[in-house]
Every structure is written in C-alpha cells, then in structure tokens.
Amino acid sequence: MLLFSVGVITGSSLFAQKQGQVKIDSLVNVLANMKEDTNKVNILNDIAGEYSNINTDYGVKYGQMAFTLATKIDFQKGVALSEINLGVNVQNKSDYLKALEYYEDAAKIYEDLDEKRGITNAMADIGSAYEDLSDYPKALEYDLKALKLYEEAGNKNKIAVVTNNIGNVYESLRDFQNALEYYLKSLKIAEEIKDKNRIAATTGNLGNFYFFQKNYPKALEYYFKTVQMNEEMGNKEGVARNIGNIALAYSSEKNYPLAIEQYERALKMSEETGYKHGVAWNLEAIGETYLAMSKDTVHPGKVNSGQLHTAINYLQRGVAMARELRTMGVLQDAYQYLAEAYKLNGDYKNALECTANYDAIKDSVFSKENDEKIVKLGMQHEYDKKADEAQKIAALRLQRQQNYTYMSIAGILLLTGFSFFIVKERRKSDIERKKSDNLLLNILPAEVANELKMNGNSKTRQFDNVTVLFTDFVNFTNAGERMTPQALIDELHTCFKAFDDITDKYNVEKIKTIGDAYLAVAGLPVADPKHAENIVSAAIEINNYMTDRLTKLGNSTFEIRIGIHTGSVVAGIVGVKKFAYDIWGDTVNTAARMEQSGAPGKINISQNTYELVKDKFTCTYRGEIEAKNKGTMKMYFVS
C-alpha cells in the first residue's frame, strides 16, 4: 500500500494550486477560437499541466500540441515549457527516463535563452526525476543547485518547495535527521509567506515521515493538519488524498473499522471530484484492509469469508480502474492482494493468474527502466559503428562482383558434387540438431527442455522450497558518465559471464538478467535440499569476485548489492515467441526487497533463508528493517 506523497516538484505548472477539471474545461472552451500564436501555446501548456494529476494521457496529448505549435512559430520559451509539461505527465506515468530527457531538453533551451527562472525550475524537475529513478545522490545534487538559485533570487515560495523535496531525498537516503530538518525548514517558510498549498504539502510529507518511523499518532497529527489546510483552500482532491493517508495510519495500527470508514470517505470524495487515480487507490486500499481484517479478526489459520468476499470485490474494482488509468503501482498492488485473497478463498486458478499479472507488471516496469539504461548507453556505440559503414558498403559491392564470377564456376562443380552433397547434408543435419539442442539447453533447464521436446509444451509448476538470489549494481546509471558505452557493456558482459560460471558451479539456475540486475534460483526444476546453502555459497563467491574486481579496476567496474529470500514460486515458460523460462511469486519480490534494503558489497538475507543457513555461515542480525510494500522484516548480513 502506497502513501500519497504531496511535496515533489513535477513541473513548473504544478507550483500553483491545482484547480482540476473545472479549470481545464474553461481553458478548452477558450481554445476553439484562438489564433495560432504564443497565447495559444500558453493555454495548451496550462491544460497539459492541469491534466498531469488527472489524466496523463490527455496531459501528454496537450503537451505535444503545445510543443508542435511552439516549434512551428519558433516560440522557444513555449517549447521549453511544453517539454516540462510533457516531462510531468510521463513522470506521473512512471516513465522516469523519458521525463528526464524532456527536462534536460527544456533546461538546454532555457540556458540558451538565459532564462534563469526556467533553468532553476528545470533543475528542480531533473532532481525529481532522479529521485523517482532512485538515484538519490544525483537528485540531491540538482535539488541543492536549485535551492541555491532560488535563495539568490529570494523566491521564498520556491525555496519552500525545493527544501521539501530535499527532505524527501534525505528520507530516502535514510538520513532522517537532515530529512526532518529540511521538512521543518520548508514548513517554517511556507507559514511565513502564508502559502496554504505549501503548508499542506509539507505537513503531508511530515505525516509520511512519522508514518515510516511508525510513530502513527504523530503521523495522524500532521495528516489531520493537512486535511484542515486543504479544506480551507477548497482543495477536495487534497482532502481525499490525505484522508486516505489517515486511513492507512489507522490500518497500520490495526484499527480496521476506522480505517475503512476513512477510506470510504476518501473514495466518495475522489468520485465526486472526478479524481480517478484517487478512486483506484482507495478501491485497492479498502480491498487490502478487508483482506487484512478477514485474517486478523478470527482464529489463526481461518478467514472471515464475508470480509474476504468483500475484499475480492473491492480489489477487482481496483484492478479495473487501475487498468483503465494505467496506474501501474496501484494495479501491481491490487493484483498482489487479489492473488492472496483468491488463494485464501481456494480459487487457485485465479490466484495463479493474478500472481502472473502482478509479476508481469513488476518485471515490465523494472525491466523497462533498466533496459532503457543499457539502450541509451549503447546508442553512442551504435553511432560509432556507423562511421565504418561507407567503407564496408564499398567492400561488399566489390565482393558481389567477384561472386558473379564464382557462381559460373560453381555451376559446373554443382553437378559433380551432388552425390557428395547429400551425404554432407545428412551430417550437417545431425550437427544442426545438436546445435539446436544445445541452444535449447542454454535457454531452458535440461528437464524443461526435454519435456518441451517430448510433449511440445511444458507445464507451469509451483515449487514450495526454493531460494531466490537477486543482484544489482549500485549507481549503475552513474557508470555511464565515467565509462564509454562499449566499455560499460563489455564490463557488464564480463561480470555476468562470471556469475553464470559461479551459479553453474553451485547448481543454481540462472533465470534472466534485467538490465544491470541478475536473477537466479536454487531448488528447481529439480528439488534440492541444499537450495539455500548453495545459493548463499554462490552469492559469497559472486560478492568476492566483484570485491576483487573493484580493488583492481576501481571506477572501471561496479559495486554490487545482493539479496536472498526463501519461499515458494511458480515457474514455467512464458509466451510462444522468444519464449523464456521464468519464475513468479512473492518470494521473487521479497528477494528484490532484500537487495534494495541491503548495502554495497553485502549479502542481505531474510529470516526464512537465515533459518536454513545459520549453522553453515556467519550471519549478523540487522534488526527489523522497513522493506518497500512489505513493512518491517528481519534481515541478516551473511559472510
């Protein structure tokens, strides 16, 4: 379940108080009779900005219209602002790399125009994109630059905004002292200038801050202040968002009836204001709360069937709304809890389908972000290759002329060698068959490959005792700034090849790479009683390999984080074209959370894995640590 965050800059049009669909309708009516001039560009940009939190598809549409017209009439300031608004909308669609590109393009235009206000706003937007990309050092760098410029200009409104953002970044970096310091600084300035919108944003983030500290009474205190401030401004969407956060705090205290009461109130307000994203969020949240209540209000091992069916109903509605809006975060959560609800209800078919949908969304978003890093870094390499193409084309033309001569000679030899050809082709067929078999074994586990050859298909199966390993390179994006694209890709290949050799050594099945991440599992497709021990052994060797490599190569390689979790997964072949053997389930997600909650050069394991390996390895208890979408979990470093 996600909190509503209310304090991050996402485009200069969002500095002002949002007025929603009412303002959009009035602006659209004005457009009909306008000339194609700078005023029309500004109106289109206003609409794009207003749509950013209501309907991002329309936001992109109007942003593109503004960009096209501004380019046509050579209105560079309008071009830059349209790129800011396009960035806002795609950022809200979770396409953070694309947003970053838009913001950087806008920044360049503002620099050419020597438009200091635009430059500063763009820097803040770039910082927000890096924050969403979890590149917090880079986000902090741009936010601090923006803060300095805002302070030089004496713009207290923007100072309040960006200090609030800096608080967000410090909180993500777990520097809670600095986070609180910047939040309170933002609140003090906002109260000085009597900016109710900024006061509401900062008190909302202070509520989130105390929520993640598990200080729910303090979180509720700030959330209620935020609601009051939004009510004074008549901002019903803001009221609805923060009532949802109040409900989440109550739910975290296991006060489910009060939580549902507040969620229902927030849902009603979201429906009344046409805030569809809020509708989707609250439907999912109500379903999740009924699910938790169905398990917590009866005897262990049993569920309240009435509450469970209510949970399923709300989660189904949440899925439908989130799919319509393409709100991936809400849709992912809704599928996750719907899968759990179906499983508790004995509907394993729908549970499996929801689990597959959940993992498909998670992988698509995660893979897209990481794959785009590789593609972007590889673009320069592709450009460099084109420099040799002219010479290659000339060589090919000469070769083609020679081939015409050789073909006439070949015609004479063809008849002579026909009988030899038949024998040769038979041998070739055997060789090609072996190549095909080897290729299949390179893609699939041996047991799955044999099943596929014999039956033409392979069944999806559940494995209850497996251990999943997830690795990721730290600040991989920054590596692109200090390494050439070719060097980066070569180093990535070298590291992953070494990982492949290590996992083979310990009977660990590599599943796939996802950008700069590496996913592997032990204990399937053939059960292995030593699955946890084997994968921890492999992790230690991988970590040692990267530590040694970092010592030798320094900035020419990467630091690594490794996460491990034990549980059950569903495994099988996905698709019929470019098919792949894959695994799904909460165990995979938890392994990823272990990696994200770990530290560079460390192997972070869950309680489940610890229980299986504690007698084999030295494990250091880290305490109960917050894991995204998981709450607190016991974690251990292994060495």
How would you describe what is shown here?
There is one protein chain. By secondary structure, the protein is α+β, with helices and mostly antiparallel strands. It has a domain of 179 residues: 2-Layer Sandwich (Alpha-Beta Plaits), CATH 3.30.70. It is 70% helix and 10% strand. It contains 25 helices and 8 strands. Strands 1, 2, 3, 4, 5, 6, 7 and 8 form an 8-stranded mixed β-sheet that branches. Strand 2 and strand 3 form a beta hairpin. The longest helix has 39 residues. The two termini are 33 Å apart. About 15% of the residues have low confidence.
Write the layout of secondary structure elements.
Blueprint: H1 20-31, H2 38-51, H3 56-72, H4 76-92, H5 96-113, H6 116-132, H7 136-153, H8 156-172, H9 176-192, H10 196-212, H11 216-233, H12 236-252, H13 256-273, H14 276-296, H15 305-325, H16 328-344, H17 348-386, H18 389-416, H19 418-443, H20 446-455, E1 461-473, H21 476-482, H22 485-505, E2 509-514, E3 517-522, H23 531-553, E4 560-574, E5 580-584, H24 586-596, E6 603-606, H25 607-613, E7 619-627, E8 631-638
Parallel strand pairs: 4-6
Antiparallel strand pairs: 1-3, 1-4, 2-3, 4-5, 6-8, 7-8
Helix pairs in contact: 1-2, 2-3, 2-4, 3-4, 4-5, 4-6, 5-6, 6-7, 7-8, 8-9, 8-10, 9-10, 10-11, 10-12, 11-12, 12-13, 12-14, 13-14, 14-15, 14-16, 15-16, 16-17, 17-22, 22-23
